[in-house]
Each structure stands twice: as C-alpha cells, then as structure tokens.
TrEMBL record, chain A:
Source organism: Pseudomonas alkylphenolica
GO terms, biological process: amino acid transport
Protein family: Belongs to the binding-protein-dependent transport system permease family. LivHM subfamily.
GO terms, molecular function: transmembrane transporter activity
Name recorded for this polypeptide: Branched-chain amino acid ABC transporter permease
The keyword Transmembrane helix appears for this protein: yes
UniProtKB/TrEMBL annotation, chain B:
Protein name: Branched-chain amino acid ABC transporter permease
Domain of life: Bacteria
Gene Ontology CC: plasma membrane
MF-aspect GO terms: branched-chain amino acid transmembrane transporter activity
Cellular compartments annotated: Cell inner membrane
Keyword annotations of the record: Cell membrane, Membrane, Transmembrane, Transmembrane helix
Coiled-coil boundaries: none
Spans traversing the lipid bilayer: 12-37, 49-69, 81-102, 109-126, 155-175, 205-225, 245-270, 282-302
Membrane topology: Multi-pass membrane protein
Automatic annotation (TrEMBL), chain C:
CDD domains reported in the protein's UniProt record: ABC_Mj1267_LivG_branched (cd03219)
Gene3D superfamilies (alphabetical): P-loop containing nucleotide triphosphate hydrolases
A GO CC term assigned to this protein in UniProt: plasma membrane
PROSITE patterns recorded: ABC_TRANSPORTER_2
Stretches assigned to the ABC transporter domain: 5-247
Keywords: ATP-binding, Nucleotide-binding, Transport
Taxonomic superkingdom: Bacteria
MF-aspect GO terms: ATP binding; ATP hydrolysis activity
Stated name of the protein: ABC transporter ATP-binding protein
Pfam families: ABC_tran (PF00005)
SUPFAM superfamilies per record: P-loop containing nucleoside triphosphate hydrolases
InterPro entries, A to Z: AAA+_ATPase, ABC_AA/LPS_Transport, ABC_transporter-like_ATP-bd, P-loop_NTPase
UniProtKB/TrEMBL annotation, chain D:
Residue ranges of domain Leucine-binding protein in the record: 42-397
Signal peptide stretch: 1-36
InterPro entries on file: BCAA_transport, Leu-bd, Peripla_BP_I
Family assignment from sequence similarity: Belongs to the leucine-binding protein family.
CDD domains: PBP1_As_SBP-like
Keyword Signal: yes
Protein name as catalogued: ABC transporter substrate-binding protein
Record keywords, A-Z: Signal
Annotated source species: Pseudomonas alkylphenolica
Length: 299, 319, 256, 444
C-alpha cells in the first residue's frame, strides 16, 4: 500500500516539475507557433543564474534564508527578461513568418550558441546551491519522507498553472492572446499589435523557462548539459497534451509523471521508455495531442 | 542507360576522387569516408525535406544500418561487405514499411516529433541491451569483399574507393529520382498536398514510398559508418545525431543531389578544425554558421553556387 | 442524353448550420451548368461533397450511375471528375510547365515512376498544347509565384483538364480577377472546355457571365436548390430575384 | 528533347563550380595541416571531455592536471625519477581535443591526431565506448596510446594481443570488488542491499560486478531494490521513494558528476542516507563539494589510490602542491589518473633507449612500458595484467567526514586493498573470477 501512495506522491511531484518546465514551451508555441529548442537553454540559464548567486549568498553571507528565496525568483526574472528580450528583439523578430520547421532549426542553432555561451560565463564546474532545498526540511506523508521543497514546487506549479489559465481565459489581455492564437491575420486586421504580443509572449515563455531552472537549481547540481537533457522531456509533455494548450501541458505532465513514478516503483526496467511510449501511444490515437486542435485547410 | 551531363560529371568527379585517395593523406581519406557515409543519411533527410517533411529521427535508420552490419558480423559471422550493407538496408526498409504506415499520417512538427520519438525508443532499447554493449556499443569486425580481404593498413583506402563508387551510383540514382514523376510528386506534396489529392494521386502513398526509400538510403550510410569507424553505439539513434543530419541538409540545401555530399564534407572539415582550434566552443561556431546560412542563404550553400552561375550567365548575355 | 451526375436527398450539417438540405440534382453528359447563390448558400459545400472533400450527412451521390459516397477525392478524380478551386491551388515554387506535367503524370498512373523522368517529350507536348489552348504558353517556364492572378486561375483549370476528365467542376473561375478580365477569361475557358467535350458545372457570382455561357442554372439558397432550369426561367423566378440575384441579403422569412 | 533543353536549370553550371571550390578548400586544408608537426618536440594528444556533463567533474581536472604536468616537466621541476627535462630531453607540446560527440567521431579525431597532427602519443579517453573504438585503430596505425580513465572490462578481451595500447587506470570491476570487500570489513551485519545506477553501460556493469561480488563476499546479503534512472536525469524523487520503501541497509551507486551530487543531496534531505549507508564508487570526485549535505560515514571510493586516497610520496606532494597553486583546489581522482598516464608515457619514452633529445619510435616506447613498473602519484604502478598492458594497483575506500569548523570534507577509516586482492588474473574475465570466488586472490 505504501508504494501506491509513493507512486501518487512521487508522480505529483515529478508532474509539477514537468509542468513548470513545459509551461513556457507551450505558451510560446501556442501563440507564436515556434517550437523552441532553446527552451532547455533558458532553463539552464535560470538554473545557473540562481545557483551562482544563491550559492554566493549563502557561502559568504549570514543573511536570512528568505532573502535567498527572493534572490532565486529575482534571478529567474532578470535572466529571463534579458535573454528573452535579447533573442526576440535581436533575432527572432526578423524571422517571423518563416516556416514552422525552419523556426525549430533556428532555435536549434540558438541552443548550440547558448550552450557554449553558458560555458564561457559559468565554466564547466558544477554549481551546488543546496541551501534553499535543505533549509526547508522534510515532512512525513503516508509514511514516506518527503522534502518540503518538493511539496512547495507542487504548490508553485498549481498556482502558476491556474494563473496562466485565468489570465488567458478571464482577462482582456488573454482575449487578445486567444485571438492571435485563433487567427493571426484576423487579429491583426482587428487592430491587435501582433508584434507586441509576440514580444510579450516570448519574454513570458523565457521567464517561465528560467523560473523552472531557478526553482530546480537547489535540488540538483547545475552542470553543462542540464538544458539539453530536459528539451526532449518538455517536448514530449507538450506534444502529449496538445501543443499550445496550458491544460494540455498540465494533463500531459500528470500523465507522464504518474506513469514514470509507477514504472520506477513497479517496473524500473521500463522507466527509460515510459515517456516515449506514452507519447507514441497518445499520438497514434490522437495525432494532435490530448487538447490539440485540428486545423482543416480551407479550399 | 543513357547518362545526362550532370550524371557524367558526378561519375567523373567520383573517379577523380577515388584516384586521389591514393595520394591524399590517410586522415583525409578517412574524413572523406565518414563524410560520405554521413552524406547518405543526409540524402535521406533531404529526400523527405523535398516532400516538406523534416525528420528529427533519421538517426533511427542510420543506427539500424550500423547495428545490422555490426550484429551480422558478430552473430552470423558474415564479413562480406555487400551482404552486410544489404542486410542493413533490408532491415531498415522492413522497419520503415511498418512505421511508414503511421508516419505518413503526420505532417510538419508532428512528423518531426514522432520521428524523434521512434528513434529515441530504439536508443532506449539499445541502452537497455547489455548483450550489445549498452551505451558502449561494440566493435565491428573487419570486412571482406567477395572473399578478398584488404591488407593490413589498406582497409581505410579500400573502403574509401568503395564508398566513393557507391556514393556516385547512389547520386546518379537519386538525381534521377529527383527528376522522376515520384520525385516531382514529392515536391508537389510539399507545395500543395490537397491539390495532389485532387489530381488523383495519393499523397500518402508517395510519402510512404519516399519514406521507405529514404530509410534504405540512410541505412546504407549507417552501414558504411559502422565499417569505417569500426565501432557502433546507440548514440547513432540519439536525437542530437539526427539534429546534425538536419543541420547538414540545411547547409547544403535541396537543390541538387551533390549538395548533401559537399555539405557533409564541408561540415566535417569545419568541425575538425573548429575542434582543434577552439576546442571549448566549437558548438557555438556551428550554431552561428547555421544561423548565418538560414539568414543569408535560406536555400543552403547550393544557392551560393547557382547564384554565381546565374550571375555569370547574365554577364555572358550582356557581352 | 445519359445522366453523368446525380444527387439524391443530400444533406450536410455543420453543428447547427445546415449547409445542404435535400439537394436533388441530375446532370446529363455534355451539359454546361451554372450554379448561383449568395455567400454561404451552399455552392462550395455542394462541390466539396460531390468531389469527396466533405462527406454528406445523408443522401446519395451517383457518378456515372455508381455511388461515390465515402470515396476519397483522389478516387473520384480518377473516376473522371476533376475540379478547379476558388483560390487557385497550384504548386507555387514550381514552374507552370512542371505544374502541368505533374498533373499529367498523376493522371497517367496512381503509382508514379521512381526513376523515369517527369519530363518526357510526350508529356511536354501535351502540356504545351493545353497551355497554348489557354493562350498562356508564354508563362511556360515562369515560377507560379511570378504569374498574375488571372493566369493562375487558367493554370488551375488547365491542370484539372489535362487528365481528360468526363466532368469538370469549376469553383468560381473568375473570382479574384478584375472585372475587365472576367469576360475574356471565361471566353477562353469555355472555348477550351467545349473543344474537350466535357460536362461542366461552375459556380459564379456574376449573372452576366452565367447567362452568357450556360444552358442551365442551379440557384442555391440556404443549402437548398431554389430553382433549377434554363437561364431565362430561373433568372425570372421571383424568389430567385428576391433571394439570390436581387442582392437582398434579408434572412427573415427564409425557408429554414 | 529540344523542347526543354533551352530550359537547362542553372544548377548544371553550378555543379563543376561547387566541386572546384570544394576541392580547392580540401587542398588548402591538407597543405595547412602538417605545418606544426616534425618540429622536434614531443607532441602528446590529450583527449578528454571539454563539454557536456562529464566536463566539470572529470574533463576539467584531467585537462588541468595535464597542463600542470606538462609545464612542470618542461621546466624540469618534478622530483626524481622524473627530473629530466620534458620527455627524454625533448620539449612536450600538448594538443587537447574534446571527447564529446560519440565513438565514431572520436575515431575520426584520433586518426586526425595521429596522421594530421602527427602526435607522438595519445593520452586520454574517459568513455568506455571510446576506448573500445579507439583500441583497434591505435593498433592499426601503430600509435602509442595510453588510456587514463575508462574502466570497461571488455578492453583487452577485445584487443587480445595489444601492442600499442596501454591502460594505466583500473578495470571498473576492481571498484566494485573493492567496495564489497570494504563492506565486509566495516559493515559485516548489513543484509538488505539496494542500488541506484545510471542506465547505461557503466551503471549496468558496475551493478552486476557489485552484486556478484556481494554474493561471494557477503553471502547473507540480499538485493532488495535496483533502480536504473536515465543518465543526467537530475531528479531522483521517485527512485529515492522506491529505495526508501524497501528499507535497505546499504545503497550502492556508481553515479558520478552532477547526478551523484544531486542524488546525495536529495537522498540525504529525505532521510534515506540516515537509515542506509551509501557506497559511492566515484564519490571522491566531489569530496570538496558535499559540505554538510552528505552524512558522515558515507562510503566513498576514488577508483584506485587516487585523489584523496593517493599516498604520501614526493611525486604526489609535488603534484598536489603544483595543482593546488595553479587551480586553487586539491586534485581529485581524475586529475591523479591523468598525471599517472603522462608519467607512464614519460617512463616509456625514456626507457626506450633512444638518444637524449630524440623521440623514440612508438614500438620502442611500447616495449619499454610493457610489463614495467613505474613510479606515479599513486605509488608504484605495475603493468601486470593483459600481457603487461594493463595497470594493476590496489584500491582504497573510506568514509566521508565533514569538519564543521574548517568547513572541509575528508576521508576517514580508509582501508586499502592490494592489487592482487581485487584484480582478476590474466585470461580470466572479471565475471568468471568473481563467480568462482576470487581464486588466487592475495588479500592483506
């Protein structure tokens, strides 16, 4: 019985992390139709920024712990804003209207560049900023010792998902965004400044990526390659849920999270295939993903 | 079989290249062998690009070709080069005939993602196979050709001559394929699939055939890679390997059958010098090159040459 | 004359919207039929159903006496029914000649050859012939993207015609073409079409154009066939005048 | 035919032009290449990870160690017997190459090193796949090659009659035999054994070596859980739960790098490491980084007598000091292993009976190193296995201990096992040797 609870708890924790990682990807794709390969690099930049600053703070200072948490968020925000604006204003805006697949390749080039750029800034040695993770302690849930930090991630993920959803569905800005998602040309004709929307959304997506990285940083050792590792994971979640859909990403994350936790507990040898298996299965049945829309061509 | 001018040039260049292998330094011979093997996989990517499909999983067939060669050597004790390569191609074609049924239902990003998923599943399966050396892979046995085995130290050169010959024949075939009805139909599908359907042609059938053929061609590249490098590992099916093939395909462009070959050679040269001169940031150099090509040469390197040819023509006309 | 196309009790619903309602039409071989109706009257839906792009909710479609319900557009095309499109559906990055050669190769065989070239003398001769018939041979080697709208419409029709269909459906052949060009374009099209002795059904907004070329008119309104008959009868019909040609867009009292 | 000849696509003319440019480029690259070679210097190709996840924990310390050693040798600063300038009097020149990119690429780069860069010897390779792929090529090209880190047991069972290929690092089986022996001495009552490995060849092999050894050395133990997460996953929440649920006494892991640090952090803060003792075969490489996030008593190894387990001797003292002053950190085990490989190479070159200042031929060097014993930062290394091509050394394990006052981690309760105790004899695979109950092992 214990392991059933463990599957649920582990699955929920992993799913919330996956959702954090995938949210930015799906937002950018939904509005801009860019499947952003560099999303993993944004995640890594957020992680590096947070780990280096927070590590420095705790190693040198005796300041209060909560400042460390604020610094993590601050880092993610600052790094996301800078990187997002730089890339969108400096490169992507010249590329709009190009083929969707070409955009994938452009962001692939970005990934190659960013990976080495990070190496230049932060070196290859791992950063280890564990204090925010360790300070929170642990609780016992259904007989299982669980890190409070992980539980907090579940909360953050829920809040983030809900606010994204509310923002899209319940605010005027969200309406404008949905108009752009639905039909870019019509939205433009109706007077929506699509370019501004794009800048806003790309920066939002970037910040979501860096935030995911910053929130993950204290639990891991931040080293080269962490970004590359999560791209395929995030893609899988987004493709399963239906690209561009927030609720899809949430459901996709939950599906993958729970299947993976179940595999770890009951059939560890299949853990490696779970993600691709779920993805191939969902796509075979629903090619557009769980929440994806089918676009029929007008003739 | 009548050969047109392009085909004659291709065969002529191949003959010169094979002959120059005798005087070229050995590292260059090896580098070209690897580049030619890769260019075959890239041909598979380009075949699908011409039909408007970008695959992030061509490494699947590259890997199948390589492992088929390696495993046939180890478990079936086959060392004959044509037989080995044929086994690889047949294995890939068989798999592609199965997966193609599903893959041809998808377009654009979904095709890219699903192709990636399948190649990653193979990657996972190989990693989980200790009998095949897991991630370490295993060494491929030495090859023979119709009972003849090359003298010690001569195998790389012999393989180079073979791969040049095979590449030339393949290039001629692909050149013809590109100009055939089926090849034209692929481009038509890329341009307007609905219209193709309304011309009474089945886009899915054309894409299916194209997918299977591309798999076979890529597997041939994988087989050669295994024989040349003498080692195979699951990395061949990893998505980053597939990404590299897309990279080279874009580098060359889809305009000509020689473009992937030239791009693969250029890529190998650029990379080997980038690794030597800037060992810490060669990826960045590759990324910048890729961006520059997309921005300045959206149709690949080939547009550089054909653009010049056009300019030359214009000058001729004026004179 | 024998009947080439027949629909029986054709219905098509999109959610709450009825795009086709009890459509019963019989078209004989060799007829030239014009379809009129305001926007959203169900003209294109009718063509899309007949060519297999949309599946009717109910009803039967017979082509040469055989049911074609559930067949793909491809199968219906191969059976001998070709169509053109409201917005020309071409292969924009290819040359005009290649567009036609592809159409021809597609018509020749469902399994395109892998190694024999698309361009052979026979195909090129046929493609050039049809381009000359439409008087657009000068555009032969231009990319479609470099070709004016009116010529694109002609290429679109030429591609449908090159496979020698028994029946040709033209969806607004003059849409997107300037008023001055319309007549000339339709003249060209109808000349070629009559030379090829193919049954034609075309959708058109301009009544002058319709009156000039057709032997029979189908007037659609709100998914229904409002009137069917020779031009003078249909165009004189009071309800057609009120609901279709009069330009009134009043929906009240519509027979729903 | 005539009809479309007019319309010859413009790329027809482009093909010869393109080929001409490509050929010109190739020629240029050929002529530019051989310039650096043949300058009387002893050129060493050093191959290690400069990018990717292995760069931080392994690649960088290795590359740093190579630089420290080459500089030291060129200035003649090393203690005897390595006080001769450079190698055999010739100045050393280093060409460093990134190991990332897979075995096929490494084969290509190896050929470039030997044939284009004309290096006199190659030292390198962390990945076992790379070593397996390089070995036959090195034999084919007759290039003196010293593997410094890869641990695959397959190496010399594939390359059965090695001539030019040497390995100065230990077979990975030694790590796990040593770990089992250490447990038998320090935790004789442990019964429930769990494991977590990265799901690739290294992790799979380590786990099978370890469980086989445990079955022999501690027959009462039983395996209660085995987890194999994807390599570089970083998040081990579910795996830690799955292990916790089984309440193991011992948790064996061959994790390395960022994965290992993340595992220790996550498992420790979830209390798993309080209830169970972790055995980390690569644990030493993060010794300075655990701080108070690893429990005292956690068992760590350094894949041989390297890093913190290296003995006190003049060579090691010099090396530690030089490394410390250059990089402001103590050398970890990958650094020691790189130093060992370069020292082995120097030993080989200087015992090849070449004139002073001259560079000996590869075969001469190989003959000199075959079966020899040379001094290293880790003590005396005997090339006593695989026909004199594989180093045999002891292995040491110890317990992590964190000193809160100095904020430094160290090792305590170190037990070293001799090479004869943990190394399978020639002609026997590690698996067979373990299964047969270690026949012929001489343990202290």
């Amino acid at each position: 019985m214990l392991s059933v609870y463990a599957v649920l708890i582990d699955g929920a924790i992993y799913a919330s992390w996956l959702f954090l990682v995938a949210a930015g990807l799906t937002v950018i794709y939904g509005v801009m139709r860019i499947l952003n390969m560099a999303h993993g690099s944004f995640y890594a930049i957020g992680a590096y920024a947070a780990a280096s600053l927070v590590g420095w703070y705790f190693n040198n200072g005796v300041g209060p712990v909560w400042v460390g948490y604020l610094m993590m968020l601050g880092c993610a925000l600052a790094a996301g804003l800078i990187v997002g604006l730089l890339i969108e204003r400096g490169l992507l805006r010249f590329m709009y209207g190009r083929d969707e697949v070409l955009m994938v390749i452009i962001t692939y080039a970005l990934l190659l560049i960013l990976e080495d750029a990070m190496k230049m800034i932060w070196g290859v040695n791992p950063y280890f900023a564990y204090q925010p993770y360790a300070e929170m302690g642990r609780s016992v849930l259904a007989g299982l010792k669980v890190s409070n930090y992980d539980l907090m991630l579940v909360g953050v993920s829920l809040v983030l998902g809900l606010s994204l959803w509310l923002w899209l569905e319940r605010t005027n800005q969200g309406k404008v965004l949905r108009a752009v998602i639905h039909d870019r040309e019509v939205a433009q004709a109706m007077g929506v400044n699509v370019r501004r929307v794009f800048t806003l959304v790309f920066v939002l997506g970037t910040v979501l990526g860096t935030l995911a990285g910053a929130l993950t940083a204290p639990a891991i050792s931040v080293a080269p390659g962490i970004g590359v590792e999560i791209i395929v994971l995030a893609f899988a979640v987004v493709v399963i849920g239906g690209m561009g859909s927030i609720e899809g990403a949430a459901l996709g994350a939950l599906l993958v999270g729970l299947s993976r936790a179940a595999a770890v507990h009951y059939a560890p040898q299949f853990e490696l295939f779970v993600i691709y298996g779920v993805m191939a299965l969902v796509l075979a049945v629903r090619p557009q993903g769980l929440f994806g829309r089918v676009l029929a061509r007008k003739i | 079989m009548r050969l047109d001018k392009t085909e004659l040039i291709l065969l002529g260049v191949a003959a010169v290249l094979a002959a120059s292998g005798l005087i070229a330094p050995q590292w260059l011979v090896f580098l070209l062998t690897m580049a030619l093997a890769k260019s075959m996989v890239v041909q598979g990517v380009v075949m699908q690009m011409r039909a408007g499909l970008v695959t992030f999983g061509q490494g699947l067939y590259f890997c199948i070709g390589g492992y088929a060669v390696g495993m046939s050597g180890h478990f079936l004790n086959i060392s004959d080069l044509p037989t080995l390569l044929l086994i690889g191609v047949v294995a890939a074609v068989a798999l592609a005939m199965l997966l193609g049924l599903l893959m041809t239902r998808y377009r654009e990003i979904f095709f890219a993602m699903l192709s990636l998923a399948f190649s990653m599943i193979l990657y996972g399966m190989l990693v989980k196979s200790p009998a095949l050396g897991s991630t370490d892979g295993f060494n491929v046995k030495a090859w023979t050709l119709f009972g003849w085995s090359p003298a010690a130290g001569q195998a790389p050169l012999a393989l180079f001559v073979i791969i040049v010959a095979v590449s030339a024949v393949l290039a001629v075939l692909l050149h013809r394929y590109g100009r055939s009805s089926a090849g034209a139909m692929c481009e038509a599908i890329r341009e307007n699939e609905v219209r193709v359907e309304y011309l009474g042609q089945s886009p899915r059938w054309v894409l299916y055939m194209n997918y299977v053929a591309a798999a076979g061609v890529s597997a041939l590249g994988g087989g050669f890679m295994a024989l040349a490098a003498g080692h195979i590992d699951p990395e061949m099916a990893y998505w980053i390997t597939s990404g590299e093939f897309v990279f080279i395909a874009l580098l060359g462009g889809t305009a000509h059958v020689a473009a992937p070959i030239i791009a693969a050679v250029l890529f190998a040269v650029v990379r080997t010098y980038a690794i030597e001169l800037v060992p810490h940031s060669w990826q960045m150099i590759l990324g910048i090159t890729l961006l520059a090509i997309i921005v300045f040469l959206p149709k690949g390197l080939w547009s550089l040459f054909s653009g010049q040819a056009r300019a030359a023509k214009a000058v001729e006309a004026k004179a | 004359m024998s009947c080439i196309l027949e629909t029986r009790g054709l219905y098509k619903e999109f959610g709450a919207v009825t795009a086709a309602k009890d459509v019963n039409v019989r078209i004989s071989k060799g007829e030239v039929v014009g379809v009129i109706g305001s926007n959203g009257a169900g003209k294109t839906t009718f063509i899309n159903m007949v060519t297999g792009y949309l599946k009717p909710s109910r009803g039967e479609i017979l082509f040469n006496g055989q049911s074609i319900i559930g067949r793909t557009p491809r199968a219906i095309t191969r059976a001998g029914m070709a169509r053109s499109f409201q917005v020309a559906q071409l292969f924009p990055e290819l040359t005009v000649l290649d567009n036609l050669l592809i159409a021809l190769a597609a018509a020749e065989s469902p399994f395109p050859s892998l190694l024999r070239p698309l361009r052979n003398d026979g195909r090129i001769a046929r493609a050039e012939a049809i381009l000359s018939e439409f008087s657009i041979l000068t555009w032969r080697d231009s990319k479609v993207t470099a070709v004016p709208q009116g010529v694109r419409k002609l290429i679109d029709i030429a591609m449908a015609l090159i496979g020698d269909p028994q029946m040709l459906l033209l969806d607004e052949p003059t849409s997107g073409v300037s008023a001055e060009e319309k007549t000339q374009l339709m003249d060209t099209v109808m000349q070629v079409v009559s030379r090829h002795q193919v049954t034609v059904l075309f959708v058109e907004h301009d009544m002058d154009v319709v009156r000039r070329y057709v032997s029979r008119i189908l007037a659609f309104y709100s998914g229904e066939v409002l009137a069917d008959g020779p031009p003078q009868t249909v165009l004189a019909n009071a309800r057609v005048q009120e609901l279709v040609t009069g330009g009134q867009r009043a929906h009240k009292g519509a027979t729903a | 035919m005539n009809n479309y000849k007019k319309n010859v696509p413009h790329y027809r003319k482009a093909l010869p032009l393109a080929l001409a440019i490509a050929t010109a480029g190739m020629t240029a690259s050929v002529t530019g290449a051989a310039v650096a070679a043949e300058n009387g210097k002893f050129r060493i190709g050093v191959v290690t990870f400069l990018s990717g996840p292995a760069a931080g924990p392994f690649g960088e310390p290795s590359a740093n160690a190579a630089k420290v050693l080459v500089d030291g040798l060129n200035q003649g600063k090393l203690p005897a017997p390595y006080d001769k300038l450079g190698i055999n009097g010739a100045e050393i020149e280093m060409v460093i190459i990134d190991e990332a990119g897979g075995a096929a690429k490494q084969v290509e780069e190896f050929r470039n090193l030997v044939q284009r860069q004309k290096v006199d010897a190659v030292v390198g390779y962390i990945s076992s796949g790379d070593c397996l792929a390089i070995a036959p090529v090195a034999e084919e090209l007759g290039a003196m090659t010293v593997f410094y880190d890869c641990g695959t047991s397959q190496l010399f069972s594939e390359d059965k009659t090695p001539q030019y290929v040497f390995r100065t690092s230990l077979d990975a089986a030694v790590d796990n035999i040593g770990a089992a022996r250490y447990l038998a001495k320090t935790r004789p009552d442990a019964v429930r054994v769990g494991g977590i490995q990265q799901n690739y060849a290294w992790g799979q092999d380590s786990w099978s070596d370890f469980t086989l050894s445990m079955a022999q050395i501690m027959p009462k133990s039983e395996v209660v859980e085995s987890q194999m997460p994807k390599v570089f996953q970083g998040q081990y929440g579910a795996e830690i739960s799955a292990l916790s649920v089984k309440r193991p006494d011992i948790i064996h892991s061959s994790f390395w790098g960022g994965d290992m640090e993340a595992l220790v952090l996550q498992a420790n803060s979830r209390g798993l490491l309080e209830d169970a003792t972790a055995v980390l075969t690569c644990g030493e490489s993060a010794l300075a980084r655990y701080k108070d996030q690893a429990p005292n008593g956690m068992i760590i190894g350094g894949r041989g007598p390297f890093g913190a387990f290296a003995p006190e001797n003049p060579l090691n003292n010099w090396f530690t000091q030089a490394y410390q002053s250059a990089y402001n950190a103590a050398p970890t085990y990958p650094a020691s292993k790189m130093a060992q490989a370069i020292l082995g190479l120097k030993f080989a070159a200087e015992n090849a009976k070449a004139e002073a200042g001259k560079i000996p031929a590869p075969l001469e060097m190989a003959k000199a190193l075959k079966g020899a014993s040379f001094e290293s930062v880790s003590g005396t290394v005997q090339m006593a296995r695989a026909g004199g091509h594989q180093a045999m050394q002891g292995i040491a394990y110890g317990e992590y201990h964190y000193d809160a006052a100095s904020k430094k981690g160290g090792v305590q309760n170190v037990i070293a096992f001799s090479g004869e105790c943990v190394t399978p004899p020639d002609g026997t695979s590690a698996h067979d040797w373990i299964k047969a109950g270690f026949p012929g092992a001489q343990c202290n």
